[in-house]
């Protein structure tokens, strides 16, 4: 059975969610505060976490950061549940690593649909990744941090490679500076985003033979250039 960890201190919501998940055949584990959730993660190894934001002690945002910061749980699907419906709250949750965000009060049917969608995506993503990723004349090998352009080796720093890897995994997605800062440097969203700009500038310089490989999206962030010739497929 698929195990789901529910991190929620409201007994009524615990009962509602548990009832509906068990009807669908899921095994539900409950933690009422953040530290207990982290202990259960290590012990029970659930396939998905339903994480309330407002928790006693260690709140849901901190729990999310710790889950993403642990190599063993970094890719675990997380759906945040919160009574806070402000756009800023949702953005913070998603940029800290949540895969989805549901606001209270919620429909049990909608929550189930989101859970099933996340589990389907996780199953697809569990297939072995390719040894290399390509984008036109650019090719990278994530395991060895190697990069070639038209077959010629290009030397990147670790951070430059990690940035490039993020872009190449999702070539049509725009990434905010805050997201890149958190993913590559592990900083909170209050960090200095100029660090990202400097590294992107250096990356563009080193990959100038395939320029513009990374383009700016005004007021948003960066993405892999959509007009760059995709002569090879992922």
From TrEMBL:
The keyword Repeat does not apply. The keyword Transport does not apply. Keywords: DNA-binding, Phosphoprotein, Transcription, Transcription regulation, Two-component regulatory system. One of its GO terms (biological process) is regulation of DNA-templated transcription. GO terms for cellular component: cytosol; protein-DNA complex. The modification 4-aspartylphosphate is found at residue 52. This is Stage 0 sporulation protein A homolog. It comes from Desulfitobacterium hafniense DP7.
């Amino acid at each position: 059975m698929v195990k789901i960890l529910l991190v929620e201190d409201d007994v009524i919501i615990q009962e509602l969610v548990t009832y509906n998940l068990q009807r669908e055949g899921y095994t539900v584990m409950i933690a009422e505060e953040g530290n207990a959730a982290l202990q259960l993660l290590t012990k029970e190894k659930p396939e998905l976490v339903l994480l309330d934001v407002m928790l006693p002690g260690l709140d849901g945002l901190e729990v999310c950061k710790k889950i993403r910061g642990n190599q063993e749980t970094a890719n675990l699907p997380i759906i945040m549940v919160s009574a806070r419906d402000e756009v800023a709250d949702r953005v913070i949750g998603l940029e800290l690593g949540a895969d989805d965000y549901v606001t209270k009060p919620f429909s049990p049917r909608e929550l189930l649909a989101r859970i099933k969608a996340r589990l389907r995506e996780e199953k697809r993503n569990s297939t072995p990744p390719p040894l290399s990723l390509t984008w036109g004349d650019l090719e990278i090998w994530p395991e060895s941090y190697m990069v070639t352009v038209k077959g010629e080796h290009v030397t990147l720093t670790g951070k430059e490679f990690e940035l490039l890897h993020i872009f190449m995994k999702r070539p049509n997605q725009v990434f905010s500076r805050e997201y890149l800062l958190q993913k590559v440097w592990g900083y909170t969203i209050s960090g200095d985003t100029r660090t990202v700009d400097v590294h992107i500038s250096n990356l563009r310089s080193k990959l100038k033979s395939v320029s513009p490989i990374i383009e700016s999206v005004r007021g948003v962030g960066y993405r892999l250039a959509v007009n760059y010739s995709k002569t090879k497929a992922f």
